[in-house]
Amino acid sequence: QVQLVESGGGVVQPGRSLRLSCAASGFTFRSYAMHWVRQAPGKGLEWVALISYDGSKEYYADSVKGRFTISRDNSKNTLYLQMSSLRAEHTAVYYCARVFKEGSVTYDYWGQGTLVTVSS
Amino acid sequence: DIQMTQSPSSLSASVGDRVTITCRASQSISNYLNWYQQKPGKAPKLLIYAASNLQSGVPSRFSGSGSGTDFTLTISSLQPEDFATYYCQQSSNTPFTFGPGTNVDLK
Fold first, then answer.
1. Could you tell me which residues come within 8 angstroms of residue B80 by beta carbon, excluding any fewer than 6 positions away?
2. CA nearest neighbour of A41 among B56, B40, B65, B47
3. How crowded is residue B7: how many other Cβ atoms within 10 Å of its Cβ?
4. What is the pLDDT of residues B1-41, one digit of tens each?
5. B92 vs chain A: nearest CA distance in angstroms?
Protein backbone atom coordinates (compact mmCIF):
# COMPACT_ATOMS: atom_id res chain seq x y z
CA GLN A 1 0.00 0.00 0.00
CA VAL A 2 1.07 3.56 -0.60
CA GLN A 3 2.92 5.09 2.32
CA LEU A 4 4.50 8.49 2.81
CA VAL A 5 6.46 8.99 6.00
CA GLU A 6 7.87 12.40 6.86
CA SER A 7 10.75 12.97 9.24
CA GLY A 8 13.18 15.68 10.24
CA GLY A 9 10.88 18.06 12.06
CA GLY A 10 11.61 19.47 15.48
CA VAL A 11 12.41 22.65 17.35
CA VAL A 12 14.90 24.94 15.61
CA GLN A 13 16.15 28.41 16.42
CA PRO A 14 15.33 31.35 14.18
CA GLY A 15 17.85 31.75 11.37
CA ARG A 16 18.87 28.10 11.40
CA SER A 17 18.23 25.45 8.75
CA LEU A 18 16.38 22.16 8.72
CA ARG A 19 15.86 19.41 6.16
CA LEU A 20 12.67 17.43 6.02
CA SER A 21 12.46 14.02 4.38
CA CYS A 22 9.52 12.06 3.03
CA ALA A 23 10.11 8.34 2.49
CA ALA A 24 7.79 6.85 -0.11
CA SER A 25 6.82 3.22 -0.57
CA GLY A 26 4.16 1.11 -2.20
CA PHE A 27 4.25 2.84 -5.57
CA THR A 28 6.67 3.78 -8.35
CA PHE A 29 7.98 6.96 -6.78
CA ARG A 30 9.94 8.07 -9.85
CA SER A 31 6.71 8.29 -11.85
CA TYR A 32 4.93 10.86 -9.65
CA ALA A 33 5.31 14.56 -9.03
CA MET A 34 5.37 15.37 -5.34
CA HIS A 35 4.35 18.36 -3.27
CA TRP A 36 4.85 19.84 0.18
CA VAL A 37 1.86 21.42 1.94
CA ARG A 38 1.99 22.99 5.39
CA GLN A 39 -0.44 23.92 8.12
CA ALA A 40 0.39 26.43 10.84
CA PRO A 41 -1.06 25.60 14.26
CA GLY A 42 -4.82 26.15 14.24
CA LYS A 43 -4.73 27.45 10.66
CA GLY A 44 -5.60 26.26 7.19
CA LEU A 45 -3.60 24.47 4.52
CA GLU A 46 -0.94 26.24 2.48
CA TRP A 47 0.76 24.86 -0.61
CA VAL A 48 4.55 25.15 -0.32
CA ALA A 49 6.31 23.57 -3.28
CA LEU A 50 6.18 20.96 -6.00
CA ILE A 51 8.75 18.94 -7.91
CA SER A 52 8.23 17.06 -11.13
CA TYR A 53 8.57 13.30 -11.31
CA ASP A 54 12.14 13.52 -12.57
CA GLY A 55 13.22 16.52 -10.53
CA SER A 56 13.65 18.74 -13.56
CA LYS A 57 11.00 21.28 -12.53
CA GLU A 58 10.38 23.00 -9.23
CA TYR A 59 7.78 25.54 -8.19
CA TYR A 60 7.44 27.44 -4.93
CA ALA A 61 5.02 29.59 -3.03
CA ASP A 62 6.22 33.18 -2.85
CA SER A 63 6.33 32.89 0.93
CA VAL A 64 9.17 30.35 0.76
CA LYS A 65 10.90 31.19 -2.51
CA GLY A 66 14.61 31.68 -1.98
CA ARG A 67 14.51 30.06 1.48
CA PHE A 68 13.22 26.57 0.78
CA THR A 69 14.42 24.03 -1.77
CA ILE A 70 12.50 20.95 -2.81
CA SER A 71 14.43 17.99 -4.17
CA ARG A 72 14.12 14.26 -4.60
CA ASP A 73 16.28 11.16 -4.86
CA ASN A 74 14.44 8.65 -6.99
CA SER A 75 17.03 5.98 -6.22
CA LYS A 76 16.10 6.27 -2.55
CA ASN A 77 12.37 6.91 -3.05
CA THR A 78 12.71 10.03 -0.95
CA LEU A 79 11.48 13.61 -1.20
CA TYR A 80 13.21 16.46 0.62
CA LEU A 81 12.52 20.00 1.72
CA GLN A 82 15.58 22.02 2.67
CA MET A 83 14.54 24.99 4.76
CA SER A 84 16.94 27.82 5.56
CA SER A 85 16.85 31.13 7.44
CA LEU A 86 13.85 29.88 9.34
CA ARG A 87 11.49 32.32 11.03
CA ALA A 88 8.66 31.94 13.50
CA GLU A 89 6.11 32.12 10.68
CA HIS A 90 7.53 28.89 9.24
CA THR A 91 6.23 27.01 12.27
CA ALA A 92 3.80 24.42 10.92
CA VAL A 93 3.07 20.79 10.29
CA TYR A 94 4.63 19.94 6.94
CA TYR A 95 2.98 17.28 4.82
CA CYS A 96 4.30 15.60 1.72
CA ALA A 97 1.66 14.62 -0.78
CA ARG A 98 1.52 12.54 -3.92
CA VAL A 99 -0.34 13.75 -6.97
CA PHE A 100 -3.21 11.71 -8.34
CA LYS A 101 -1.62 11.48 -11.78
CA GLU A 102 1.05 13.25 -13.77
CA GLY A 103 0.01 16.77 -14.67
CA SER A 104 -2.58 16.99 -11.92
CA VAL A 105 -2.49 18.84 -8.65
CA THR A 106 -4.79 16.56 -6.75
CA TYR A 107 -3.36 14.80 -3.73
CA ASP A 108 -4.55 11.24 -3.29
CA TYR A 109 -2.02 10.29 -0.62
CA TRP A 110 -0.55 12.37 2.20
CA GLY A 111 2.03 11.67 4.85
CA GLN A 112 1.20 11.97 8.52
CA GLY A 113 3.03 15.29 8.75
CA THR A 114 6.09 16.46 10.66
CA LEU A 115 5.97 19.45 13.00
CA VAL A 116 8.53 22.20 12.62
CA THR A 117 8.68 24.70 15.46
CA VAL A 118 10.87 27.78 15.01
CA SER A 119 11.57 29.25 18.40
CA SER A 120 14.45 30.53 20.45
CA ASP B 1 -2.69 34.64 -7.30
CA ILE B 2 -6.10 33.02 -7.27
CA GLN B 3 -7.92 33.63 -4.00
CA MET B 4 -10.30 31.00 -2.68
CA THR B 5 -13.13 31.76 -0.30
CA GLN B 6 -15.50 29.37 1.45
CA SER B 7 -18.84 29.84 3.11
CA PRO B 8 -19.85 29.36 5.74
CA SER B 9 -16.67 29.32 7.81
CA SER B 10 -18.42 27.00 10.24
CA LEU B 11 -21.75 25.30 10.61
CA SER B 12 -23.56 23.21 13.16
CA ALA B 13 -25.63 20.31 11.91
CA SER B 14 -27.28 17.12 13.06
CA VAL B 15 -26.85 13.57 11.88
CA GLY B 16 -29.00 13.09 8.82
CA ASP B 17 -28.92 16.74 7.77
CA ARG B 18 -28.14 17.81 4.24
CA VAL B 19 -25.08 20.05 4.29
CA THR B 20 -23.86 22.39 1.56
CA ILE B 21 -20.53 24.20 1.51
CA THR B 22 -19.69 26.80 -1.09
CA CYS B 23 -16.28 27.65 -2.53
CA ARG B 24 -15.58 30.62 -4.76
CA ALA B 25 -12.48 31.41 -6.82
CA SER B 26 -11.34 34.95 -7.58
CA GLN B 27 -11.08 34.06 -11.27
CA SER B 28 -12.23 31.25 -13.48
CA ILE B 29 -10.55 27.93 -12.78
CA SER B 30 -12.71 25.78 -15.09
CA ASN B 31 -13.19 22.56 -13.13
CA TYR B 32 -9.76 22.53 -11.47
CA LEU B 33 -11.20 22.25 -7.98
CA ASN B 34 -10.64 19.65 -5.31
CA TRP B 35 -12.30 19.05 -1.95
CA TYR B 36 -10.55 17.61 1.09
CA GLN B 37 -11.76 16.54 4.51
CA GLN B 38 -9.53 16.93 7.55
CA LYS B 39 -10.06 15.65 11.06
CA PRO B 40 -8.08 16.98 14.05
CA GLY B 41 -4.51 15.75 14.13
CA LYS B 42 -4.84 13.94 10.80
CA ALA B 43 -3.74 14.58 7.26
CA PRO B 44 -6.35 15.79 4.78
CA LYS B 45 -8.27 13.22 2.76
CA LEU B 46 -9.30 13.67 -0.86
CA LEU B 47 -13.07 13.59 -1.37
CA ILE B 48 -13.78 15.16 -4.75
CA TYR B 49 -11.47 16.01 -7.66
CA ALA B 50 -12.06 17.99 -10.83
CA ALA B 51 -15.07 19.61 -9.18
CA SER B 52 -17.44 16.68 -9.39
CA ASN B 53 -15.55 13.38 -9.43
CA LEU B 54 -15.87 11.22 -6.36
CA GLN B 55 -12.56 9.77 -5.18
CA SER B 56 -12.49 5.99 -4.95
CA GLY B 57 -13.69 4.74 -1.59
CA VAL B 58 -15.47 7.94 -0.64
CA PRO B 59 -19.14 7.43 0.26
CA SER B 60 -21.68 8.48 -2.34
CA ARG B 61 -23.36 10.88 0.09
CA PHE B 62 -20.57 13.30 -0.88
CA SER B 63 -20.97 15.15 -4.15
CA GLY B 64 -19.44 18.17 -5.83
CA SER B 65 -20.61 20.53 -8.51
CA GLY B 66 -19.71 23.77 -10.22
CA SER B 67 -17.34 25.24 -12.74
CA GLY B 68 -15.72 28.55 -13.46
CA THR B 69 -15.71 30.40 -10.15
CA ASP B 70 -18.48 28.85 -8.06
CA PHE B 71 -18.42 25.38 -6.57
CA THR B 72 -20.39 23.36 -4.06
CA LEU B 73 -19.72 20.37 -1.84
CA THR B 74 -22.85 18.59 -0.64
CA ILE B 75 -23.21 15.92 2.00
CA SER B 76 -26.65 14.44 1.41
CA SER B 77 -27.12 12.90 4.86
CA LEU B 78 -24.54 13.83 7.47
CA GLN B 79 -23.04 10.91 9.34
CA PRO B 80 -21.17 10.98 12.69
CA GLU B 81 -17.83 10.44 10.94
CA ASP B 82 -18.38 13.49 8.73
CA PHE B 83 -17.81 16.04 11.48
CA ALA B 84 -14.58 17.61 10.28
CA THR B 85 -13.13 20.59 8.46
CA TYR B 86 -13.53 20.78 4.70
CA TYR B 87 -11.17 22.59 2.33
CA CYS B 88 -11.42 23.42 -1.32
CA GLN B 89 -8.26 23.81 -3.41
CA GLN B 90 -7.76 25.21 -6.87
CA SER B 91 -5.40 23.20 -9.05
CA SER B 92 -5.44 25.54 -12.03
CA ASN B 93 -2.42 27.76 -11.39
CA THR B 94 0.49 28.12 -9.01
CA PRO B 95 0.26 28.85 -6.16
CA PHE B 96 -2.28 26.09 -5.67
CA THR B 97 -4.33 27.89 -3.09
CA PHE B 98 -6.70 26.39 -0.57
CA GLY B 99 -9.83 27.91 0.82
CA PRO B 100 -9.83 28.86 4.52
CA GLY B 101 -11.88 25.83 5.47
CA THR B 102 -15.38 25.09 6.74
CA ASN B 103 -15.72 23.45 10.12
CA VAL B 104 -18.74 21.16 10.43
CA ASP B 105 -19.64 20.34 14.02
CA LEU B 106 -22.46 18.75 15.93
CA LYS B 107 -25.48 20.89 16.69
1. B15
2. B40
3. 13
4. 999 999 999 999 999 999 999 999 999 999 999 999 999 99
5. 8
